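Re: the 347-residue chain
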Amino acid sequence: MEPLKKMTFVSSTVIDLLASMLRVVNHEQLKETEGLGGQVTKEIETWVLETRKKVPEEMMKELETFFHHESYLAITLIPLIIKYELYSDVHSFLSALHNLEDEELYYYFINTGFGPDEELTTFSDPSAVISFLNKLNVPETEKWKLSYLIFDGPKTKQRLIKLIERFYYHYYESVEAQIVKDQQKWIDTMTDFTNERTKNYFNTLNKQFVINVEEWEKVIVTPSYFMDFSMLFMSIRKINLTAYVPGIRHIEVQDVGRGEKETLESIRTMTDEKRFKMLQLLNKQPMYGYELAQHLDVSNSTISHHLSALVARQFVQANRRENKVYYEVNQEEIKQVIRSLERLLIK
């Protein structure tokens, strides 16, 4: 089956609600990636700054707990939203969270696809939980936070439900109707596969993230207003799910050409200290995400962030081997950027 025929496009106000909360906490980190293709919209910039002024200090601390860029805990609920088809009604989503078993919530928190090979499926044994958390590529503070949230039992779930509910009514509900319209407009445009631009966009994504259409039951695509130029990608084997959450302007990243401005942006991407070290390591041998994070002693979030930038510029390409996605250097693309720089500087 062709990759495009395997995709299901869904508008989701619930997923964009989580994306808006992620944006409030991590706006600056998201903007760094967005610099690959353009600038965040003035509307989003204004909304973030105004919302930050309105959010009480204690609520901002809760947002930072569940949406911190090193763990993105609440964002791990997106597969749960897709699994139970809780796309369009925030109240149904909150009700499902109320009824969700604590252990299922914790499972999503820690099994993100960037961890060790084994999975933790039971959380009743503290020593087993601590042992597993110690294998995760997250800062020590995030490991302690995760252990506290897990051992705090039902209170953790209630804190998260309260946070989402408050944010929805106070900051998101007023923009919800327009966001749904923007999402549907994107879907109407992007599902026209007679348009070569959109067809090439999704084929490029599938190549970048190594989607084997025969392996997955379905591939969900749900656009996000608040992700703007950024994108979230997740692949959860236990529930046979692959999902893209592209910002509604993410396609513009793929449209970047190779003029003077784009060459300079490519050089900046490549010569960032962490990305440069990643390219050096991957030039020696292909590695998968967890292994790369171990070598560089950085978090999953950091690796994911920098890999996204390198993949978007096509400096790194992915290949699936034995149920893992290995990343390797695309030497030809690097050579082309260097040649472009040479043409700009040397007669």
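The radius of gyration is 20 Å.
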